[in-house]
Every structure is written in C-alpha cells, then in structure tokens.
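Recap from last week: sequence in, structure out.
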Amino acid sequence: MDFYSNLRNKLQAMKDGGTYKEYQYLTTPMSNKSDIEKYDEVIVLCSNNYIGLCNNKEVIQAGHEALDKYGAGAASVRFICGTYDIHRQLEKETAEFMHTESCLTYMSCWNANTGVIPAIVFEGDCIISDALNHASIIDGCRLTSRKVERFVYKHSDMEDLERLLKEGERFNTRLVITDGVFSMEGDIAKLDEIYKLCKKYKAILLVDDSHGMGVVGATGRGAIEYHNLLGKVDIITGTYGKALGGSAGGFVAAKKEVIDMCIQASRTSLFTNSLPPVVAAMSLKAIQLLKRDNSIIESLHKKVKYLRQRLHEEGFEPLEGESAIVPIIVGDTAKAIRIAKAMLEKKVYVTGFGFPVVPEGTARIRIQVSDALSYEDIDYSVKAFKEVFDNL
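Predicted structure tokens:
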C-alpha cells in the first residue's frame, strides 16, 4: 500500500468511526455569541475567552496603534534583529503581574514549554511530571537530553510524587512540572502540597498556568495566587492567547538566571521569529485592564457557579472543580462528537473531546465559561444540553 492510500484509509476509518474532526469557520469576532458558517449566530461555550477580552475595544485599539507604529514585525528571530521595546514592556509587566524577577515572551506557550524545559536541565538531572500535564509539557520533556531522566507521577497524587522525589535524591536537580489548571479535567493542581514537597526535597517547581491566569485567584493571577504562592514558585509558563487577550503568545516568568539561560539556549526562541508587536501590544493592554479592574474575575466566578448549579438542577454531573472548565463525561468519542454536532444545530457551540486527547473511554463535552456570556445565554445552553442528552 502506498503512502497516500494508507492516509486515505486511516482518515476513512476515522470518518466511519465517528471520530473525524472538522473545522468550524468563524466569520465574526469571538464573544458570547459569534457567527459560524452554515450555522449563523451561536452561543460560544468552547473558547478560552474567559474574561471576554478577545473583542475588547481597548485591546483592539492597542493593536491598531502598534500596527501603525511597528508594522507587521521584524522578519527575524530576537537575538538577530527581532526585539522591540514593546517586548520589553510586555515582559516587565508580565513579570510584575506574576511576582517574578524576569520574563521572556514566545510565540506560544507551547513554544515556551518546549523551549524552557530542555534549556534548564542537564546530565545528572531529572524531571518529575504530572500524568495529565498538557501535551506541550510532555513534548518539552521529550526534547531534553537523553542523559536527563524523566518520571511521571499519578495525577495530583502527592504520595506518588513524594516517592519519586525520595528516589530521585541522587540527581543534581529535580524539576517538578505541573499544570496549574488541567485543561481537560478543569481541576486546580494541589500547588500548596507540591510546593511543600519541593521545598522539603530541594526540588525546582515549574507551573504552566495557561488556564489559570485571568481565571482563578482573587485578582486573576491564577492557581499560584489561588494557593497563596505568588513570588514563591520557581518558574511559571503561561499564555496571552487565552484569557489575556485571546490572540497568541506565551511566556516564561522566573528568576533572571532562568530567563538568561532561555535567551542563550532555548531553541524555540533562538530559531523562531519574535512575537508580532501588534500581539505584544494587545497582550500588554489585557494585563493592564485586568490589573485596573479585577471585578471581571469575580463576575466570571459567579457565572461558573451559576452554570454548575443549572447543570446539577437538570441532572448533569460535571467533573468538580473551581476553574472555568466544566467537563461532562460521556465515555465514547463518537458520542461526544455527535453531541457537539447536535448542540450546534441548537445554536450552541461546544466541542467533544476523545482519544487521543483524553484517555480511551473518557470522552467528554468540555464547557468553558466566559464572562462575556449573559445569564440568559447560560440558561438557554443548559436547556439545549438537556434536550440533546434526552434524545440520545
């Protein structure tokens, strides 16, 4: 069988099994409601637009001004001629926001994770990673030297983590890595316990808080703030492409030595163009808006609680959690995709996730709450869920 025939057969098998993914094309800005080709206006329950900044007028205006001032970009990686003063401003603001010494921006948090991890561990070191960490963390660990040993602890299992920390006392550096908020489960990492274990065993802690920033914590500083650990976590990675503007970009925030090593040795910085100035400017404005008025965080938290309450009233049992991610387990991947399609027919946009994104047999509908949603949007969506599930 030739290459293309093999691909066609595999793709057809996905279609036959009901697991084939198709893009939906937006034709208007992301908000509580957006237009999608073939479906017109729909309520959006699958975006990372947690605090509704994707279509914020001040964020958009900051982008316009940056485009006029800087143009499209420098057509270069940062250490050659791709660094602008707007990058420095964003990095300074991000470091202050996250209570760290320094910061380095990347094109995405995927680039941040796959860049920082291989840059800071060496022969004689080890990595200890949560079993449900994001794929970018997994790939970042895979990109380290073969002489760096890698271990995985059971999801949020502190006994298993401590066992690995004890067994790893022979290593020079033990780097513990966890998501702050787990993207498919919606649960918040036990950072208070993880931090204590890292201190006890002199390990370094790296937290990817992409789904926590702008979402959890009293002022939206994420899972680290939620656990009262601002200024204590060694390394933080995150994104501007979710709650903080919704465009693109990621970062590493840490002590100056970590950031300098990333500048010197991080391949995803050394060999990738710098963040476009327009994106940097919008991200900067998003952080400034959140610092100026964190009442949107309180408003988001109220809407998350309201959605969960309404789901329970209608007999649903979503996974528990305090983030804006509310997963409903349905088991079968094809079933999850059928539900998502049926919801679109009712003008509600959600996504069904199955294997290999989540383990086999744990397919789910992942609802994501945005402060842009009205309570009427939530009520309508829960009613639509009830109708779809009752007719399965």
